[in-house]
Amino acid sequence: MTMDSVGLQVLSRAECVDLLASTPIGRIVFTDRALPAVQPVNFVLDGQNIVIRTGLGSRLAAAARNTVVAFEADDFDAAGRTGWSVTAIGHARAATEPTEVERLARLPLTLWVPGGRDHFIVMPIEHISGRMIGAHR
Fold first, then answer.
1. What is the pTM of this model?
2. Which of 57, 59, 100, 130 would give a disulfide with 86, using CB separation of 3.0 to 4.6 Å?
3. Across the chain, what does the average pLDDT equal?
């Protein structure tokens, strides 16, 4: 087990991906009109890709076209003082190929908000890191 300079357990890539797969909500960090923006999203992992479903005219859809974005998910138990946090970075792209869009539409990505969400953003995990505190698992 590797620890960082403040005593948090450093997670392997495989552990980070497993933890991402265990939660349906994360936050995507992107640039909106030259400023950083953070938006909570529901997502699903498709292999080594983070997949988000959004509306075509959304700020996120406009901002995440072949750009570098960050993605973060976590889980904490304040009473038990345990938890984890995982951050991934990659080049987000819009899924435009009809066969890919059809395949992504079959993923278990449940929409939490009403309205049209027919646009898929795919972010390959190019870099991932994570930390854990306590015996969360």
1. 0.89
2. 130
3. 89
